[in-house]
Design a protein that fits this description.
Elements lengths: L7 H10 L14 H14 L10 H9 L2
Length: 66
């Protein structure tokens, strides 16, 4: 994180929307609500993509294992 330097467009977006955003830093963990949001996004935007396959959830859970 210390090395991140936002690009110009990212800085403009941050400046424009910062008052509406909340940043929460926490350890990676499975959250059913977050997965439901992700699943709706994948289904609507990338229905035929690799992430939409039946393997997406097991792969995601494997990544989140400590």
């Amino acid at each position: 994180m210390d090395q991140f330097k936002p690009k110009r467009s990212q800085q403009r977006a941050w400046n424009r929307y910062a008052s509406e955003l909340e940043v929460i830093v926490r350890n990676a963990a499975f959250d059913p609500d977050h997965y439901a949001l992700y699943s709706r996004y994948i289904s609507s935007r990338h229905p035929d993509g690799e992430a939409a396959t039946a393997l997406a959830l097991p792969r995601l859970l494997a990544i989140l294992q400590p």
